[in-house]
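User: Predict structure, ligand 6R9.
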Amino acid sequence: MASAASNIPGPARHDSQGIPMHAPGRRLTTATNPHKDIHPVPEKSHVGPDIEAYKAAHSDTVGPHSDAWWAQQARDNLTWIKDFSIVRTGGFPSAEELKEDNPNPPSTLPITWFPDGALNACYNCVDRHAFKNPDLTAIIYEADEPGEHQYITYGMLLNEVCRVANVLKDMGVKKGDTVTIYLPMTWQAAAAFLACARIGAIHSAVFAGFSAESLRDRILDCGSTVLITADEGRRGGRSVATKVIADQALKECGDANPVKHVLVLSRTGSKTVAEQHFTPGRDVWWHEAVSNVPSYCPPEVMNSEDGLFILYTSGSTGKPKGILHTTGGYLLGALLTVKYVFDVHPGDKFACMADIGWITGHTYIIYGPLSLGTTTTFFESTPATVFVSVLYLTIFFLSSMAYFNHYTRSISYPTKRYWETVSKHGLTQFYSSPTAVRLLRKLGHQHVQDHDLSSLRVLGSVGEPINPEAWNWFNEHVGKGECAIVDTFWQTETGSIIVTPLPGAIETKPGSATVPFFGIETEIVDSMSGKTLEGDNIEGVLCIKKPWPSIARTIWGDHKRFVDTYLRPYPGYYFTGDGAGRDEHGYIWIKGRVDDVINVSGHRMSTAEVESALLLHNGVAETAVIGTSDEMTGQAVNAFVTMKPEFSYDSAIEPALIKELVLQVRKIIGPFAAPKRIFIVTDLPKTRSGKIIRRILRKIVAGEGDQLGDLSSVAEPEIVDVIKQKVADSMSA
Ligand code: 6R9
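Assistant: Predicted complex:
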């Protein structure tokens, strides 16, 4: 890696479009940090001092050098039980290889990294640090209850992980089995993940804001024999009925229910759960089980390509995809991105405010920081509760919408929980989402002002494009103009960050994710021709040229779907599904999804998924769901619905019917997917072959109903005016 002089560029300058460019974090050297007496800061950033140093370092990590670089990093940073002799196999198939009659289709040439190496992810995340430094804090657990926190050392974590691993073994879990985890943001979730990794079980974590139906589908898809859950969750001062939902999910699995044992963490000590929702013989209390097993469990020898976890994510069809990540490659991507993107140094306290139910929580709360041996944070609470018209909206990072609709009554809850947490623990990195930043900005900077945030050096954003207003607020009011701001682009499928600024090296522009991470070769491809676009100031779709270690290997049980979704659209490339541009500095600007995926508060869902949920209502005939831009949540779900002719209703009951439909979606998918607006219409605009033309609906909702262009492809164009009127009436109501 290129070494750095401590010559960090000075104040903001502008590019030719007038966009300000910001120095890549001034709190990176002791020389420039005004708070050096209070919080130790690294002498210099891992990369720097400027983009030239990055370019020199990056060029050593791509092209013909790529495999050698990754091999070196894998040996330097991970502890292997058996060294590997092969670095990588497989690549992204060409058009020729993708032909249906190819006798050696892509599925016979899987992507592997370090395929003959052996290691254990849990050993890498816990044991090796516990042996060296048992008293180092592995996890800062900031509980939902204001003022309550706990420090879990690497020694304590090892003990808990081993005990849970032994409990799972006693429950019959073996290497290669799947275990579903439905847990709130308590630190024990890390023990659950790592216990699975320790014994070679593949965990499938389901976000605790998902409904019973969603949990049921995910359990059935991967066939877990064990479910790990909690009595209740706590968020924003309220309890969430986690175990009741889990019980409902298992009941709904019916005869196909694969779950034999349920391990229940007592988070709140709920009497109701203990007395009414506990099935003896099947359910076991976590605290009782762990006290009855040995405190050590040897880590299983895992092949680098053995599955580590499955995480379900939305695609452009109704059925969520079980994305499979494997051991060695994933762990390496997680570790290196924590180190370089967040410029982590010994003594740092890293905080990612995501939920462990999403990929951001997997990689940047658990596997990345712990494999690096740093201190990570479990933030169980909510950043703020806001009064907006008559609703109290409680917002959660990357899960915000999950509870948006729960809190329709007054809750007095702090508006500065984030900042209290930062100053109380002296956090050095703070990784959040544009939605959270937008909300906090709206609340006003007085809440930030009262807190000492001088420990922070790097501020991160992920999940959706961040608008310059939010970026600037983050920079000025949280970072005080001295922190590096990293707008990190990545996906569940990429496993770890792939496009990002690097503190100390890359000047930033609000709204741009800037440059590819080490080992990543991005291309912007013309969406129509599939040709790579050269030069600057171009726009197309974002693709990656060559596999990197933490890329997902497959979709659980459906490799064809993996190939069709990511590798077939642009042969020779991995297709991200996002539109992107490249400016005159070679900086990448992510423009958002180009498929039928809606991103609400960084939370992915497919239009088809929401449509299927609406169609389960007995009166619904047809639906069309679209994403529209939303000032607070980035995008919002809007649904057009037609009712069956036999379903009688009149306009007087329409509000009640809309409520019912919203509830339907909340129940089937989860509260976060609830449509912001539902329009009940008599028909939908369709082509002559019967395809719904969503483009027209999008334009109408965006207020561009007068710019619909040529409507000759619409089978019954008069419906367009009817819909326009309906939308106008609903919006003004
Ligand atoms: C990590 C995560 C992935 C989708 C992705 C894109 C959007 C993520 C972004 C961003 C603009 C960023 N996305 N980071 N868009 N700028 N910095 O969010 O994973 O839940 O799988 O979502 O999120 O559209 O394709 P995931």
